[in-house]
Protein: RCC1 protein
Organism: Hemiprocne comata
Amino acid sequence: GNDHLVMLTVDGDLFTCGCGEQGQLGRVPALFTNRGGRKGLERLLVPQRVPVRGKGNRSKIRFQDTFCGAYVTFAVTQEGHIYGFGLSNYHQLGELHLHLSTSPACFGKAYSLGRAEYGRLGLGAGAEEKSTPTLIPDLPSICSVACGASVGYAVSSDGRAFAWGMGTNYQLGTGEEEDVLSPVEMTGKQLENRVVLAVSSGGQHTVLLVRDKEQS
């Protein structure tokens, strides 16, 4: 994240370190987020396991993936549950009572929630802040998604990339700096004969992992 690090072990444990002022470490009480309390800065700066257990008497939860936002952390369990902790000033963690099923109701669909300015949710003109996952319309079957500070991306099952959000610094690949409120396909000479495998975004730039169609 902006000032914290999350690590996933081969055993499915989650470790965090860094700044915990917004709850993004998932293990430090608010009272100790400044200097670490009696344990000192070691509580913050030395990687330590995030203690997470399921409801009732279920055994320890094990994770298979994790990723960060600026001041938030998400982790996916081996059963497909999503856990999140940290800053949620624009509902980026969803609602506290929200229940996500482990059995997907649909496959290949992209959803967004949180702050809507600059078109970062991809929900079109007039979209407002969302506190629950909302389907992004007009996209083909999607196999992966990514986001930056104010942008969003999706990679389709047939190897195309779509982008939306703030266009400043040309990070949407449209050749323009205008904001894009709904997903548009990223095109250009360099992508004509290539299949997009993955996309990732930094603060003001985008990187695409591609493969020549001849190799597909």
About this structure: The chain is about 0% helix and 35% strand. Residues 151 and 165 are 4 Å apart (CA to CA). The chain has two domains: 1-87, 90-216. The longest helix spans residues 42-45.
